[in-house]
């Protein structure tokens, strides 16, 4: 009891002597775990791939409020992240990466699909748009196959014409050789008669 009156604890140590190193402001930031550093490295890779938060929001054409609704966060959280240099948690970056990948793979997919209270209706609409796109692609493939068939026919015709031209060329070569030989023989006969 006497020690406590002098500012000492029950073991005789000064009160707050050990608290200062652990609870004081002189420690600075806590050290990061290797897992946290790994996540931050992944975030940096994702950020390099898809851009910063405001660029993504602009590309999607969403307001800050709709973007927050898409990510299931409070709008003030979105504002805080964008004001402090894209300091969103790693799972937010991963969600944005997945969303953009889905949007690329399924062209009819809009943010409304995730934000709407009735995603089933939007799902049906997206499926219809995909069916229309698939039909267009099938038609394009049909047109391309017709063009390919036409090109194949033209190629066959050109090959036949080339063969005909080669035959004509061979005939003309042989004829020119025959004419040349006849000319030489007449010249030889002429020189022979002239020499007599």
- Tally of strands: 0
State the domain count: 2
Radius of gyration: 42 Å
Shape, principal axes of CA atoms: elongated
The helix content, as a percent range, equals over 70%
Measure the end-to-end span: 159 Å
Largest sheet: none
Strand content: under 5%
* Average pLDDT number: 80
Q: Low-confidence spans: pLDDT under 50, at least 5 residues? A: 1-26
Order of helices and strands: HHHHHHHHH
Structural category: mainly alpha
- Count, helices: 9
Question: What keyword list fits this structure?
Answer:
disordered N terminus, mainly alpha
Describe this structure in words.
This protein has nine helices and no strands. By secondary structure, the chain is mostly helical. It folds into two domains: 48-115; 120-196. It is elongated.
Please write out the topology.
Blueprint: H1 2-5, H2 19-23, H3 34-50, H4 53-60, H5 64-71, H6 75-83, H7 90-105, H8 111-115, H9 119-195
Helix pairs in contact: 3-7, 5-6
């Amino acid at each position: 009891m006497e020690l406590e009156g002098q500012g000492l604890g029950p073991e005789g140590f000064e009160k707050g002597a050990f608290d200062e190193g652990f609870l004081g402001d002189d420690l600075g930031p806590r050290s990061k775990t290797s897992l946290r550093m790994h996540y931050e490295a992944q975030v940096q890779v994702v950020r390099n791939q898809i851009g910063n938060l405001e660029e993504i929001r602009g590309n999607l054409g969403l307001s800050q409020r709709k973007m927050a609704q898409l990510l299931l966060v409070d709008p003030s959280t979105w504002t805080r992240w964008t004001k402090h240099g894209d300091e969103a948690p790693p799972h937010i970056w991963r969600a944005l990466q997945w969303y953009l990948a889905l949007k690329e793979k399924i062209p009819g997919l809009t943010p409304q699909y995730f934000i709407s209270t009735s995603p089933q209706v939007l799902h049906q609409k997206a499926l219809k748009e995909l069916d229309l796109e698939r039909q267009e692609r099938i038609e394009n493939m049909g047109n391309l196959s017709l063009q390919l068939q036409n090109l194949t026919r033209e190629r066959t015709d050109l090959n036949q014409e080339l063969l005909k031209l080669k035959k004509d060329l061979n005939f003309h070569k042989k004829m020119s050789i025959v004419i040349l030989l006849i000319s030489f023989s007449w010249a030889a006969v002429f020189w022979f008669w002239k020499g007599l």
